[in-house]
Write a structure and sequence with these properties.
The protein has helices at residues 19-34, 55-66, 98-110, 121-130, 152-160, 209-219, 235-245, 271-277, 305-313, 328-334, 349-362, 365-378, 386-396, 406-414, 422-428, 433-445, 449-452, 470-482, 486-498, 506-528, and strands at 6-9, 38-41, 72-76, 83-86, 114-117, 166-169, 176-181, 185-190, 198-201, 206-207, 224-228, 253-257, 260-261, 286-287, 294-295, 345-346, 455-459, 465-469. With 529 residues, it is of the alpha/beta class. α1 (19-34) crosses α10 and α6 packs across α7. The structure holds one RNA strand of 76 nucleotides.
RNA sequence: GGUGCUAUCGUCUAGUGGCCUAGGACAACGGCCUCUCACGCCGUAAACCCCGGUUCGAGUCCGGGUAGCACUACCA
């Protein structure tokens, strides 16, 4: 009997969504789509003290930006920033499922799989300092203040008195618990090392992750749990919980993903690594209302969502061949859990840049022009000629990784140089350069406005099509006749127009600037250098 | 400390016993192209953690070491 594939991404609203979480969401999404199943989104907000306002909206917006679609649970209403809940297994916020958890806590209590404990955090802390490696389990639970060591009357009295308590899972000792993992195979852990995990706390009337997670996955008919490797050690506990509830026959399959590691050294990638090494660790910029911090995001740094997706997909997964570029549809087609690596992947930010470069080239000049607008505005360029913007982007996009970098490559198209790069001057501005420029001005004056912009296609010796500008036909013979050096004249000319020895082919620059502006810049340079 | 997971170029990885003198990509380096800076193209350097075993044959299977990481909360 094949079960319908239903997977879930279940983040906690404790801040911005970490890039590792994004990858987990992506793999879940790819798996669901490939199997024609459902991708659910559930919010695990069982820790009321760690809730950060705006985090939920942030998570949904990030997934939406990346094109990771949600079929069921919480999502953004199409084209808006409004949150909607869809599906018949709601509510999808654990904080709204209190009543549901109550009955399951009761079930475990009634069946003897759980018990009530009154030990205060302070008492537990004292125990831990008193006994090294203290663990609340079969060996120690009979020395603690719980319903196993008290009479029913005492327990009832304490609860009636309003004493805070927790419900703990009663782990039976000396049992090898088997967890089947789709990525790692069989993992066996002895129940002796498991502690009697807290399942429910009366203080905020909320279950802990472990209980809520199992109950919800069961009720929501989740077929596969795809999550980070940090959950592997608690997987046996989860197996035990499924069993305690009598749900072992519909227990989901597990797949524990390798961790995303910091680029240098070892260890889990953290927000601090991003700050330290200068790259975003979050999909979107996040303004944390709780602590006032601001975290940079991939989107605001100029990343294209398809580049982030492709980059992340390959951090821990690889197809069978040498293909590096994958569209979302291709990822859905080729993704498979048995091609996910077992070992952690160091976060290679440089490769991320390369992916963005690749995807940037694939976008049209017009699209990029739109995306470039905010940067232009920042530079004081309001309402530019969009056709011209697209044109200069076409000339320069192959040399940038990010849209904002386009400004460094195109600024001289928008503003005449106000200073001239010293290094370029030293290398390219010769004694004769003023004379050359004077003569060049005179020569260019003779070119008509129409001829100025004209060009034709030609075949070169390799029979490739190249563009031949009319101005080339005017200037080159003059240089040859005067026996000037092509490089000397052209570089001086370039410095006049650009302010430095850089930029696209010179006739592309003169074409965009036009005759009047070009000549103006040369005269200006002559008076200033 | 305990338990678990993992181990191929600097990095992401291909490799599922002979196709491996270990392939691709990023980064690095060199060259070509060229009026400049880039892009691009071509090329170079660069790895099977160690020790045993199984086998005619091991990067690939097994065992043991070692190392790294994760977990070890009334956090998820």
């Amino acid at each position: 009997m094949e079960r319908r594939v239903r997977v879930r991404f279940a983040p906690s609203p404790t801040g911005a969504l970490h890039i590792g979480g994004v990858r987990t969401a992506l793999y879940n999404y790819l798996f669901a789509r490939q199997h024609g199943g459902d991708m659910l989104l559930r919010i695990e907000d069982t820790d009321s003290t760690r809730f950060v306002p705006g985090a939920e909206e942030y998570i949904l917006e990030a997934l939406d930006w990346l094109g990771i679609g949600i079929d069921e649970g919480l999502r953004l209403k199409k084209g808006t920033k409004e949150i909607e809940a869809v599906g018949a297994h709601g509510p999808y916020r654990q904080s709204e499922r209190r009543e549901i958890y109550h009955q399951y806590v009761k079930q475990l209590l009634d069946s003897g799989h759980a018990y009530i404990a009154f030990d205060t955090p302070a008492e537990l802390e004292a125990k831990r300092t008193e006994i090294p490696n203290f663990q609340y389990d079969a060996r120690t639970r009979m020395q603690m203040r719980n319903s196993l060591t008290m009479s029913q009357e005492e327990v009832d009295a304490l609860i009636a008195k309003g004493e805070q308590y927790v419900v703990r899972f009663k782990v039976e000792p000396d049992e090898d618990v088997h967890v089947h993992d789709l990525i790692r195979g069989e993992v066996v852990i002895n129940s002796n090392i498991l502690d009697d995990k807290v399942l429910y706390k009366s203080a905020d009337d909320l279950p802990t992750y472990h209980l809520a997670n199992i109950v919800d996955d069961h009720l929501m008919e989740v077929s596969h749990v795809i999550r980070g490797e940090e959950w592997l050690p608690s997987a046996p506990l989860h197996v035990l919980l499924y069993r305690a509830f009598g749900w072992q026959d519909t227990m989901p399959e597990f797949a524990h993903l390798p961790l995303l590691l910091k680029p240098d050294g070892n260890g889990k990638l953290s927000k601090r690594d991003g700050d330290r090494l200068g790259f975003p660790v979050f999909p979107l910029e996040f303004h944390n209302q709780k602590d006032g911090s601001v975290s940079s995001g991939y989107r605001e740094s100029g990343y294209l969502p398809e580049a982030v997706i492709n980059f992340l997909a390959l951090l821990g997964w690889h197809g069978s061949g040498d293909q590096e570029m994958y569209t979302m549809d291709e990822l859905i087609k080729y993704f498979s859990l048995d091609r996910v690596s077992k070992s952690g992947a160091k976060f290679d930010y440089e490769k991320g840049k390369w992916f963005n470069h690749q995807y940037l080239q694939l976008r049209s000049n017009e699209e990029l022009a739109e995306m470039f607008l905010p940067t232009l505005k920042e530079q004081g360029i309001e309402c530019p000629d969009m056709a011209m913007v697209a044109k200069v982007i076409g000339l320069t996009k192959d040399r940038v990784n990010f849209v904002p970098e386009l400004w460094e490559q195109t600024n001289f198209f928008f503003v005449a140089p106000t200073e001239y790069d010293e290094k370029s001057l030293k290398k390219r501005w010769k004694e004769d350069s003023p004379k050359h420029m004077q003569e060049l001005i005179a020569l260019l004056e003779t070119v008509s406005e129409e001829e100025w912009h004209s060009c034709r296609e030609e075949k070169n010796e390799n029979s490739e099509t190249v563009i031949r500008w009319h101005l080339d036909d005017v200037v080159m013979p003059w240089i040859a006749e005067k026996e000037y050096g092509v490089g000397i004249v052209m570089n001086a000319f370039r410095i006049c127009l650009v302010g430095a020895a850089r930029g696209p082919h010179i006739w592309n620059i003169t074409d965009v600037l036009g005759k009047e502006e070009t000549l103006k810049r040369v005269r200006e340079a002559l008076s200033r250098i």
